[in-house]
C-alpha cells in the first residue's frame, strides 16, 4: 500500500469536505445519469439540487441524497456510512436516498474498502460533513427569517423558530449552498444519537431481492464485447506461441491477440500484483461463445525462469526477484520444515528467553501449518473498460479505485482526470479486489480491440490465478517452571512468501521472557490480503497453543488468558504492545458470561474458546461442537466484540455471524494446493466451501457497550474462529489438530 | 444457431443462439435479465438457480435446446412487485451481505416452500445445501425460510 498517498488524501479530504460546504455550486451532472433507483423516480427529482458538500445533496423539493464514498462488498457501508451523515445532519432516515459516490478522492476521501477501515476512517469526517451542512441550513433559515442562527432548531429535516416559522431543508438548501462553513462545529454526544446505534435495513435490499443489475458482471453498454484471457496452466509458466485458427472460426469471435500487461521495468505499486504478464486474449460477442472458442486455442507455454519485478515504494524503487520453477505443495512443506530449523530474523525480544528455556521444568513445543487459500468471491473477477485515445471509462468491482488509477494513468498515458472508474457493488471482496490487475487488463484489451469490453474471469480462471492467502507455519514454545508458571514464550513463524508474525501482539507484553522470529521463502505463487491478513493464521495457531499451555498448567483457558492480560495491564513487559489489555479482557469476560462457560446445562457440547485483537477491534468466541453422523459439527457459537460505537447493530451482527461461518468453513475445509505449479483446485467441486448443513444453528453475537470511536468489524471476528474451532475439536476428538484444513487431517489420520 | 421461443417470466421471448448455450447465458447476454448469477458454471454453487415449471434448476447446466415449452421463472419474475413471501422474508431478516448469491438462494427457497410448506431444519439444509453463500448468511436464510413457512 502506498501509505503516503493515502494519508495525504485523507488530510486533503478533511480540508475539502469542510471548505466545499461554502460557496458551492449547483450540480446536475450525475443526477441525469441516475436511472435505476425506484425510490428516486417516484420522488420526481428536479434537475437541480444544492450540493452542500461532497456527501450531501438536497433538492428544492426536499429529497436528501447521501453519497456513499466507499465501495460496497457486503460490509454494508452503503447503509452505515450515510447513517453517520444523517445523524449529524438531523434528517428523517426514511427520506434519505443513498447512492454510491463517484470515484473522486478530492471530494470523497480515500475511498478504499479494506483493513476494516471504512467506518473508522470516515466516522469523524462524515459527522463533520453532516454537522456542517446542518449548520448551513440553519444559517440560511436565520438569514431568511432575520433571526439569530442560535435560535433556529432542526428536527428530522425541518427547520423551525419559536416565532412559528418553519421550513424543510429543501427550501433552504439553495441558499445554504452559498454560505461559508464556520469553524469548530460541535458534534452530538453519543447519548443524543437517534439514527446511529439503531438498526437500519440495507439500503439496497429491495434491489438485491428483485435481481437488479448491481454488480460488475451485470454492467453492460450497447456494443460491448466480451473478453477472456487464457492464462498459463501453471505458476512459473508463460506464453510461448499460439495458434488461434480454430478459435477464430467459432461463431461470435472477433479477434484473438496477445499483449503485455506491464512493459519491462514498469514500476509496480503495492496493489499492482499480477501472476501472468503475457496475456492471450479472446474477444467476441457473448460470454458463452468466448468461453467455448477459448477452448479451441492451441497455445504453447514455457517456463518463465527467474524474473525481476520493479517495485515502487516509499523508499524508492527496488528490484524483487521472483523465482522460476514449478512448485508443489509437498516440496513446499519440506522446504518450510527445513527453513524452520534455521536461524531466523529476530522480530522482538524481551528478557532472556534462552536462559529461561534452558532452566524450564517443562517445555511445550507445537508446530502449526496452514495452506494457501483462494478468496473465492462469489462474483468472479471482471471489469468493464472503454478506452479511447482521449479517455478511459471503467466500471466494476474494485476495493480501492485510488490505488489503481495511477497505474492506469501511466500505462494508458492518460491524465487522471481522463480516467473515470465507477464502483459497482461487489459480489464479495475479502481483500482480493484490492488487486486491480483485472482492471488494467480490461483497459488494455479495450484499447487494443478499439471497443467497449467486459473482461470476465471464469470460476476456474479466478481460482487458479493466484493472489492467495499465503501458506503459513509457526512453531510455538512455552517454558513452565516447577510450579507450572509460564516463564518464557517463543514463536518462530515462516511462510511462502511471507510469515504471519505480529511480534507486538498478545501474549507479548504479558510474559517476562519473550522471543518472536520470522522467516520466509520466495515463490512465484502470488499472494495478497485475505480477510484479516496474517491474523487469520496467528489466531488459529497462537490461540490453540495457549489452550494447550493452559491445560498443561491445569488452568481454565479463559482464566489463564485473563491472568496474562492482568499482567500486561499492571506491569507490562517490553514496549510497543499493540493491544489494550482491558478491552481484550472485556470480550473474554463477556463471552464467558454469555456462553455460560463452565456453567451447567452445556454438557452436550465440546467447547472451545479463543480471543484476538486485530484491525483495532477485539473479538472472542466460544464454539460448541457436537457429533452428528460420526462427524464433528459446530452447532452453537457465542461471540463478543468490542469495536467501540456500533453504527448499525443488526447489520453488524450479520457481519459477525458471517465471519464466524467463514472461519468455520476455512478452518475445516479451505485449501488451495499445487502440483508442478498448477493449482489442484479449480472450482467448487474440489475446493470445498462451507454450506447450509455445515453452518451452526445459532450464533449469538454480543457487543461491548461503550462510547469509544468506532473501529472495524469486517475482519476482527474472523481470525479467532479458527482457534476456537481447533480447541473445541480437541474436546470432541480427544486429539489436537495442528494442520489446516482440519477435515483433511481428520480424514487422513482418524 | 437455432431460434427458440422461450416462455420466460410469463412472456414469449425469441432468441437465436447456439443450441448448447446454457439458459444462464441466454438470460444474461441475450435477454437482459442479469438477476440470475454466474458463480461456477458447473452446478456447484446455485447462484444461477431459476424455476422450470415451478421447480428449482441450475440454469448453467440447462441448454437452450432442452427447455421447449417449459415455463422459466427468474428472480425478475418471481413476483410482480418484489413481494413474494420469500422476498419479503429476506428483507425482514435483512439477509444479504454482498447479495450476489441471494437471487439463487431465494429461487431455491421458493421452490422448496412450494412443495414443502413447512420444512424442518434438516429439510431446509438438505434442499438448500446446493446454494453457497460466501458471506455466510446461512442462519438468516434459514430464519427467513422458517418465518415464511409459519405464515
UniProtKB/TrEMBL annotation, chain A:
Transmembrane segments: 12-31
Name of protein: Xanthine dehydrogenase family protein molybdopterin-binding subunit
UniProt keyword terms in alphabetical order: Membrane, Transmembrane, Transmembrane helix
Species assigned in the record: Larkinella punicea
All residue ranges annotated as the Aldehyde oxidase/xanthine dehydrogenase a/b hammerhead domain in the record: 210-305
Nuclease is among the record's keywords: no
Superkingdom of the source species: Bacteria
InterPro entries: Ald_Oxase/Xan_DH_a/b (IPR000674), AldOxase/xan_DH_MoCoBD1 (IPR008274), AldOxase/xan_DH_MoCoBD2 (IPR046867), AldOxase/xan_DH_Mopterin-bd_sf (IPR037165), N-heterocyclic_Hydroxylase (IPR052516), OxRdtase_Mopterin-bd_su_IorB (IPR012368), TAT_signal (IPR006311)
Alphabetized Pfam families for the sequence: MoCoBD_1, MoCoBD_2
Taxonomic lineage: Bacteria, Pseudomonadati, Bacteroidota, Cytophagia, Cytophagales
GO function term, MF aspect, one: oxidoreductase activity
Record's signal peptide: none
PROSITE patterns per the UniProt record, alphabetical: TAT (PS51318)
Listed SUPFAM superfamilies: Molybdenum cofactor-binding domain
TrEMBL record, chain B:
PROSITE patterns: 2FE2S_FER_1, 2FE2S_FER_2
Domain 2Fe-2S ferredoxin-type: 2-78
Pfam families linked: Fer2, Fer2_2
Bilayer-spanning residue ranges: none
Domain of life of the source: Bacteria
Keyword field: 2Fe-2S, Iron, Iron-sulfur, Metal-binding, Oxidoreductase
One function term, GO molecular function aspect: metal ion binding
Protein name listed in UniProt: (2Fe-2S)-binding protein
Source species: Larkinella punicea
Amino acid at each position: 500500500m502506498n501509505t503516503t498517498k493515502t494519508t495525504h488524501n485523507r488530510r486533503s479530504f478533511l480540508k475539502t469536505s469542510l471548505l466545499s460546504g461554502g460557496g458551492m455550486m449547483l450540480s446536475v451532472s450525475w443526477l441525469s445519469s441516475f436511472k435505476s433507483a425506484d425510490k428516486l423516480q417516484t420522488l420526481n427529482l428536479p434537475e437541480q439540487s444544492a450540493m452542500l458538500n461532497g456527501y450531501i445533496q438536497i433538492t428544492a423539493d426536499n429529497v436528501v441524497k447521501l453519497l456513499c464514498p466507499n465501495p460496497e462488498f457486503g460490509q454494508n457501508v452503503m447503509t452505515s456510512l450515510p447513517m453517520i451523515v444523517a445523524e449529524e445532519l438531523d434528517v428523517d432516515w426514511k427520506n434519505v436516498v443513498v447512492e454510491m459516490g463517484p470515484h473522486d478522492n478530492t471530494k470523497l476521501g480515500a475511498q478504499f474498502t479494506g483493513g476494516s477501515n471504512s467506518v473508522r476512517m470516515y466516522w469523524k469526517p462524515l459527522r463533520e460533513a453532516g454537522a456542517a451542512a446542518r449548520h448551513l441550513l440553519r444559517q440560511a433559515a436565520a438569514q431568511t427569517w432575520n433571526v439569530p442562527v442560535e435560535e433556529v432548531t432542526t428536527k428530522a429535516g425541518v427547520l423551525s423558530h419559536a416565532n412559528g416559522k418553519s421550513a424543510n431543508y429543501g427550501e433552504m438548501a439553495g441558499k445554504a449552498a452559498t454560505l461559508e462553513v464556520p469553524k469548530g462545529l460541535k458534534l452530538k454526544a453519543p447519548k443524543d444519537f437517534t439514527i446511529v446505534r439503531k438498526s437500519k435495513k440495507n439500503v439496497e435490499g429491495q434491489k438485491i431481492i428483485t435481481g437488479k443489475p448491481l454488480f460488475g458482471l451485470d454492467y453492460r453498454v450497447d456494443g460491448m464485447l466480451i473478453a477472456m484471457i487464457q492464462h498459463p496452466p501453471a505458476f512459473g509458466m508463460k506464453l510461448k506461441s499460439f495458434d488461434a485458427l480454430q478459435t477464430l472460426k467459432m461463431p461470435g469471435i472477433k479477434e484473438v491477440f496477445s499483449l503485455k500487461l506491464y512493459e519491462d521495468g514498469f514500476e509496480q505499486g503495492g496493489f499492482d500484483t499480477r501472476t501472468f504478464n503475457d496475456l492471450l486474449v479472446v474477444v467476441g460477442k457473448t460470454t458463452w461463445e468466448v468461453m467455448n472458442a477459448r477452448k479451441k486455442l492451441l497455445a504453447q507455454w514455457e517456463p518463465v525462469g527467474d524474473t525481476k519485478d520493479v517495485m515502487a515504494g516509499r523508499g524508492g524503487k527496488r528490484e524483487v526477484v521472483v523465482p522460476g520453477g514449478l512448485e508443489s505443495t509437498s516440496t513446499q512443506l519440506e522446504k518450510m520444515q527445513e527453513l524452520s530449523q534455521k536461524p531466523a530474523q529476530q522480530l522482538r525480544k524481551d528478557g532472556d528467553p534462552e536462559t529461561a528455556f534452558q532452566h524450564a521444568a517443562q517445555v511445550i513445543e507445537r508446530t502449526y501449518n496452514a495452506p494457501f487459500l483462494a478468496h473465492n468471491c462469489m462474483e468472479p473477477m471482471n471489469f468493464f473498460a472503454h478506452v479511447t485515445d482521449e479517455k478511459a471509462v471503467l466500471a466494476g468491482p474494485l476495493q480501492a479505485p485510488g490505488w489503481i488509477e495511477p497505474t492506469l494513468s501511466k500505462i494508458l498515458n492518460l491524465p487522471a482526470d481522463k480516467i473515470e472508474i465507477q464502483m459497482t457493488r461487489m459480489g464479495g471482496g475479502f481483500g482480493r479486489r484490492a488487486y486491480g490487475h483485472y482492471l488494467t487488463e480490461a483497459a488494455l484489451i479495450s484499447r487494443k480491440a478499439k471497443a467497449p469490453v467486459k473482461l470476465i474471469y471464469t470460476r476456474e480462471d479466478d481460482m487458479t490465478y493466484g493472489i492467495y492467502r499465503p501458506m503459513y507455519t509457526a512453531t510455538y514454545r512455552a517454558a513452565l517452571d516447577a510450579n507450572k508458571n509460564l516463564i518464557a514464550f517463543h514463536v518462530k513463524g515462516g511462510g511462502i512468501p511471507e510469515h504471519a508474525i505480529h511480534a507486538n501482539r498478545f501474549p507479548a507484553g504479558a510474559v517476562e521472557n519473550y522471543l518472536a522470529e520470522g522467516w520466509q521463502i520466495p515463490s512465484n505463487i502470488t499472494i495478497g490480503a485475505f480477510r484479516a491478513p496474517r491474523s487469520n493464521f496467528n489466531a488459529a495457531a497462537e490461540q490453540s497453543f495457549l489452550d494447550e499451555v493452559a491445560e498443561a498448567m491445569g488452568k481454565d483457558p479463559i482464566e489463564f488468558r485473563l491472568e496474562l492480560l492482568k499482567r500486561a495491564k499492571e506491569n507490562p513487559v517490553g514496549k510497543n504492545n499493540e493491544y489494550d489489555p482491558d478491552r481484550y479482557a472485556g470480550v473474554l469476560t463477556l463471552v464467558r458470561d454469555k456462553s455460560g462457560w463452565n456453567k451447567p446445562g452445556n454438557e452436550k457440547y465440546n467447547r472451545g474458546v479463543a480471543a484476538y485483537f486485530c484491525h483495532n477491534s477485539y473479538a472472542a468466541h466460544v464454539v460448541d461442537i457436537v457429533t452428528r453422523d460420526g462427524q464433528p459439527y459446530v452447532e452453537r457459537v457465542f461471540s463478543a466484540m468490542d469495536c467501540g460505537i456500533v453504527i448499525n447493530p443488526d447489520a453488524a451482527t450479520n457481519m459477525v455471524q458471517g465471519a464466524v461461518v467463514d472461519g468455520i468453513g476455512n478452518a475445516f475445509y479451505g485449501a488451495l494446493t499445487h502440483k508442478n505449479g498448477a493449482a489442484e483446485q479449480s472450482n467448487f467441486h474440489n475446493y470445498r466451501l462451507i454450506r447450509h448443513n455445515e453452518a451452526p444453528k445459532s450464533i449469538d453475537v454480543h457487543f461491548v457497550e461503550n462510547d469509544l470511536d468506532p473501529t472495524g468489524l469486517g475482519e476482527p471476528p474472523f481470525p479467532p474462529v479458527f482457534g476456537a474451532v481447533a480447541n473445541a475439536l480437541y474436546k470432541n476428538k480427544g486429539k489436537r489438530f495442528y494442520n489446516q484444513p482440519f477435515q483433511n487431517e481428520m480424514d487422513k489420520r482418524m | 444457431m437455432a431460434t427458440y421461443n422461450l416462455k420466460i417470466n410469463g412472456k414469449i421471448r425469441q432468441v437465436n443462439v447456439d443450441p448448447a448455450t446454457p439458459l444462464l447465458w441466454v438470460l444474461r447476454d441475450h435477454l437482459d435479465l442479469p438477476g440470475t448469477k454466474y458463480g461456477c458454471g458447473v452446478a456447484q454453487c446455485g447462484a444461477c438457480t431459476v424455476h422450470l415449471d415451478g421447480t428449482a434448476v441450475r440454469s448453467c447446466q440447462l441448454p437452450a435446446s432442452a427447455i421447449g415449452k417449459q415455463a422459466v421463472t427468474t428472480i425478475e419474475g418471481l413476483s410482480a412487485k418484489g413481494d413474494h413471501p420469500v422476498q419479503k422474508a429476506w428483507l425482514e431478516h435483512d439477509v444479504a451481505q454482498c447479495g450476489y448469491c441471494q437471487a439463487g438462494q431465494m429461487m431455491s427457497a421458493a421452490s422448496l416452500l412450494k412443495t414443502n410448506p413447512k420444512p424442518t431444519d434438516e429439510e431446509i439444509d438438505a434442499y438448500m445445501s446446493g446454494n453457497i453463500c460466501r458471506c455466510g448468511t446461512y442462519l438468516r436464510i434459514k430464519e427467513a425460510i422458517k418465518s415464511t413457512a409459519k405464515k
